[in-house]
Amino acid sequence: MNYYNYFFSLEDKFKEISSFVEVDERNYQTFSTEISLTFFATCSEFEVVAKELCEILHPGFKAQYPRANIDNIADTILESYPTITDHVVDVLFFKKHFEPLKGWQRASCPIWWKAYNSLKHDRSLNYHLANLENLILSLSALSLINHYYVWKKNCPNKRIHAASLQISHVPSHFRIRDVQYDGPWSSEDVFDI
Predict the structure, then answer these.
(1) Does residue 10 contact residue 46 with C-beta atoms inside 8 Å?
(2) Residue 35 and which of 45, 71, 131, 156 are 20 to 30 A apart at CA?
């Protein structure tokens, strides 16, 4: 499954939203139906890809946790990659950076995930939480988890921190700082997603 294609579609959707809502800190609390739809899709995709990464890290994860929650996911990913929470994602077209997984622990999920969960369980009360800021943070987190998934799947014996890889299509807006998206490449770093 090519999870990056879904991410690229979500990036495109974010770009469309930015045509109507200026991506600026003063608009971070702006919410709308389009932002909500994209936020839901992004958070759902984060969960899907994170579970796939967990299955690679610990074969049998999905059988052990058929209804895995964010705590199960955190336990598995943070055990293998405790520094994933330190990564910075640059949002290129408006020159800002974010640490979307900062402070993520088993009992303390990221703020954008709390918003997603609140929205999922009571949309009428929490509709305002599907805002521009949470969308940016969730897309940044999805960029990270996709990268870790692709790296672990294709380069299982290499260290991942600040890993570089050549993929046929790279994120256009949400890029992980310290990850080399443009060559030079060794032959073992080149693969098509």
Answers:
(1) no
(2) 71
How many CA atoms are closer than 13 Å to the CA of 192, on its beta-carbon side? Answer: 0
DSSP sequence for 13-44? HHHHHHTTS--SGGGTT-B-HHHHHHHHHHHH
- Judge contact between 90 and 177, C-beta under 8 A: yes
Q: Where are the domains of the chain?
A: 3-189
Q: Which of 139, 145, 146 is nearest to 41 (CA)?
A: 139
pLDDT tens digits along 162-181: 445 555 566 777 888 877 66
**Hey, how many other C-beta atoms are within 10 angstroms of the C-beta on 25?**
10
Q: Do 88 and 144 form a contact (C-beta atoms < 8 A)?
A: no
Given a cut of 60, whether residue 184 has pLDDT beyond it is no
CA atoms of 178 and 11, how far apart (whole Å): 20
